[in-house]
Amino acid sequence: MADVTAGTKSTRFKRRLGEGLTVELIFTPSDNTPNPIANDGHLWSGNETTSIDIDRPSVRQSPSDTEENEGLLQIDLTNFTGRLSFRKIETNEGEISGVDYSTTPPEIIECPPTFEEINSTLTEQQQAQQPINFIQVDDSLFERLLSSSVMTDDHAVMGDEFSGVSSPIHENSSIRLQPSFMPATTEVERDLTVSTLSSNDLKAVGKAGAPLSAGKFPFLRNRVKPVKNPTSEDTKQNSVTNTISNALRYRRNKRMSMFTIMKRESVRSLPSSVLMSPTKEEKDGQTELHILVSSADLTLKSLEETIERFPESVSTPDGRGRLPLHALGSNSDLVNYPEGQAIAKQCAILLMELYPTAIITKDENGRMPFTYLIEKWVEWTHQQDSAKQLSRNHQDSGEAISGFFRKLLGSWSRSSRHTDPTSTTETLQSLKSLSDSSNRFPPVIIFEEVEWCFDILSLAMDHLGGMPFDQKQNLRKNLSHKKQREERMVLATNVASIPQLLKTAMLLDSNETRQNILDSSVIRRALLCPEVIGPWLTSMLRHKKGKSSMLAIELLVMFSQLSVEDHVGKYRKVLPFDEELFKADKLKVFEAVENLRDIVPSLLILPNDQLDQAIATPVIWFCMNRHTTSPFSVGMSSTDFQLQITTIIAVRQGLFLLNTDGVFPIVFPQLTIVSVVFFGCFFQVIRILCEAMALKQISTQVALRYCRDPWRIFHFVGVFAAMWASVQYKIRIDNGFYEDESNFDGDTPPLLMAIIIGLLWFSVLGFLKAVNESLATFILALTRIFFDIRFFCIVLLVFILMFGDMFHLLYLEDPALKAECNSNDPSDPASDFCSERLVYSYLRVYAMMIEDFNLVDFQQSPAQTILWLVVTFVGFVVMMNTLIAVITRSYERSQNSSIILFRRARCEFVASNAAIEGFLRPEFFDRHANRNCDLSSILLASARWILLLTFFVTISISSLYLIQLLVEVIEAKNWIATIAAVVFCLIMTFNIWSSFAFIFNALLRICSGEWAEKTRNGILSTNQYIVEKMAAQIFGIDARNTDGGEMIVTQSYGGHEKELYSRIDKLEKMLDRLVTQEATREAVNSIQPHVN
Fold it and tell me: What's one GO-annotated cellular component (predicted)?
């Protein structure tokens, strides 16, 4: 409806009509005012109401842009005064009245008066009274408005069951819409704008509720003002009904209209069905203050008045042990829009000031204030994800998900909330029953009231850290430093105890929101609580899809970057005792990460760049150091070293260095030597296979990475070949093969034996690369150098073949050199170049490149001399210097990345040791072996017992062999060999002690009694002392050191090179600028006297 005054600026009212739609427009002109409405441009005149029917059945539902003017009724009101309104809307199949209609309204109907056109119809006085304001809201406000009166000229229908109730318009009052039903699903975000006008503005503009496009939902975000009681006359005058249907469809107008769809990240709120309403018994224990702070109409003034009347109610709990601060933190109706959050924040500050310990007071369910909504958010998030997973496996996914959401969300009305008295007490159990080991990591959305709870908890945490609520006050002095620190710890522990809270926060889809939550004071302090850690962290590292692994690495970085300010607060002075407490709390968090099952082996799933970022964090370095210095790891590493050296000595002494008479040395019986080699190699082969099987249970990708390691391949080939050779020699000894001296010639290819012994020594390098950082730098640098010179070797090989063929042809064709081919001197190069085997010619060229030549040998012919000059220049001067440059550059790059390369090797070392340790423990089969005796379970159990038996047999035989070796070297009076044998015997003693300590510890766990406990503690303490000494000598790590070190900035090889060149470019530019400035200054100084 619109009041039109003559003389106003031309205004056009447009309405796009749908198929089969009839709109009755009513214009009531003033006296002697012509009627402007015409269907064909003709103007009617008269004082009576004129009705015009426009029937456009041919107009399509979705007109294209080229048909912009079709179906539009344009009215020019420049020189007319009167009232214009829409009387009714109907279709060809039935009349629409409220929610009672028989068919869907037109698909597309627009209401396009522009902002300028609306403003042009207002008088200056009306514009001054209330300007047009566009506001935005979400669905959650409707539920709050159910009990509120409506004041609007129009009302709307949402979906098929959404309608409003018309109310009168009062002067200078706001317009509101009220729904009577909200859809049960929240999958589709809805956020639109609606204009809030005064009654005068509305009359000037016309009916704001014309037929709207499908799916347009006008709703309000700002808090609405109380409405005056309407009069019956006003109610009769404003009885126009507008309809909106097809709620899930959207259309954006090109021009600003009265109702415009705007899609953005809408304001979200928790589903009402996951929130618990108090039972009747619980309501009986509530005070008036509890009821007030639970209401959506709470104001700071009403709170102050209630507290003034009932001051003791601030500290009075209700039937569930909840203080008023608990009730305020659970008031989702109040805090899901900004104005309500501001009011609730002021009320929370007042309650905390009056009763400071309320923030750390627990109710009967163990909840502290403002944690209820956070807990429900976590629970709802994971239940929703479980429902989506269930729907994918259902035959009819749409039916399954619909049924779940119907059960989960239920109705949005207040009457549908749970009232079961047992539901509240069982909430924590239901939340803790969520699977912590779930491999699903979906994107998470956060609701505004939950985000507000984090803000309030951070405010309370800062307040306990010395920040005053009132900025005009000084820092808090009413509480001692110690008491505040304890209260911060209690609050942080309660927040950290919410299951999967940190996981849910890490999975927030908005990077900005996630960073804000993780940077909040309460989360930073909760990160220093071990309760915040869960098995989900390992699952995140293993997750291949999405960005879960990167989020897990970010979390590890956060743990590593915690500071003492996070512990005591930013507003308190750090005391020496705070530093100690901070280190103790940080140690507990690091230990909680270390105790996660398979945390280090899970890192091997990551790509190399992510792996480097993870192992650069102090928390992971702490985990690796603690595992490296554990008794099992130290004992196993020492045993590996002993067995490798013993096997090499036995192979050399017994299998290859037979005396000339074909008889073994008297001190070393044949059976003992062969047994040492066989069992030593067999144990290492079985161990490699068992480690691969254990890593396979963690991840197939980790097992493949373990098996593809070049060091592991060389080690496996070497020990397997040595085991095969020992078996062959044992068979020949039993058959009397070596009793005949003629059988020694040509028995086994010497090159094969040399390769076997070389691979065994190469395995020692593979072991040492993970032991010490200095050793790792040289060993890994060598591997990097060999990798970098692979292309140089190809070029070098081509040059050797080229010059070898040239010299070979020159000696065969040149008459002056052909005579030299009859020389029988092996040192003469002619004997090699004239040989029928070209390989000798190639070897001679290679010798020339490394300066193994005599100038006299290349002076018999000018061609020979020229070719010799070319070979020496290209081979020695160019190629060798190029090789040196490549090696130098590769070594420098290896030095720059030595820490990361060493930590990567240490990570693989710890992962293999952790896998074999878990494999040897009975708990491994409780986790992985099937209860049914299938083939895989039998293989795992058999491999475990074979490994244990082989280990003890190998240790026994190796120890016997070392004792015999010690006796032999003492009798030979070889003091260097004696010292080496004594060192090996000490290592052997430690290995035997560690092995039996491991067994006794497992046996004493089964036994009960005081004696068993004392014996076990004595063995553990003694073993720990020995391990600390051995760890310091082998790995260079202090086992008592709990510091994870500093963060390491990781870069790839290319990154270091790029950074170096970037720095060089900057230096060059800086020097050029300085030189230019200096030259300019000199030129100015030289010109200055002449100018003067």
Answer: plasma membrane
